[in-house]
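Blinded run. Sample ID left blank on purpose so nobody reads anything into the name before looking at the predicted structure. Input follows.
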Amino acid sequence: MLNFLPSPLRGTLAALILALNTLFWCWPLFALSLLKLLLPVPAIQRTLRFGMHWIAESWMAVNSFWMDLVQPIRWDVRGLEQVDMRHSYLVTSNHQSWADILVLQYQLNRRMPILKFFLKQELIWVPVIGLCWWALEFPFMKRFSKEYLAKHPEKRGQDLITTRKACERYRTNPVSVFNFLEGTRFTPTKHDQQQSPFTHLLKPRAGGIAFVIDAMGEQLTALINVTIHYPDGRPSFWDLLAGHIRQVVLRIESQPIPAELLGKNYDQDEAYRLAVQQWVNQLWTTKDAQLEQLHRQFPVTR
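Blinded prediction complete.
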């Protein structure tokens, strides 16, 4: 264990391991991805996807190793028994930090299919890791403002087309499609700007989750609703690298996706949009109450 070292040194070593880990695994991932492009045979591509997912899971396992190395985290986790590797899931969580992603991967890796995040299109240009996301078939979304869509109505529905194409590739292998409903990390400033009705959460955005339900609702076994609480306070990514996160509380709940939300069109059905938003708001009301309870049970120390 390296927790006896000064935190700047721990953080530097962790960042170095993370970089080397990414560079080590990216090359076999790129090789299998190239093979998949050159061999458009469904059975072969399905096998190659399993290999690529194994590489991604190995990358996550090494990340879990250095997380343990810099500072063993005290985990309080409930609900892992509700997921498995055989089924496909829609997954969501509250979002407080870039550390959330590695925290989720630490607990969910090799317990359920790897999390496929919806990413902004610009992120494909992130050196190395952007290509890794592309190789692993993460869906890249291009968001258009209301003003832009008013001038270019032909672009309306483009997100749904992108989602459908991504989800078509997921039909041959189990997958966990992940969406942060808040769309961005929680900060007090954003909370105030939104005038959020929730104490510990930003307003949820229903569009992304509705697109996934629209595109592959019949394939999804359940919604996996994760709640993350940091008793040490909302961390930065550096806090994770430097071993400043001493405890993490996770609550994992599996719940059915309402049957009345399946087989509808979010873009064209106003009543359906309202129903999805009401469902999402209820999820967030329950999550906010759960976070309030966790704050009382595990008080924030800073």
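Unblinding after everyone has recorded impressions. The beta strands are 74-78, 88-93, 115-117, 119-120, 140-141, 176-179, 220-229, 247-255.
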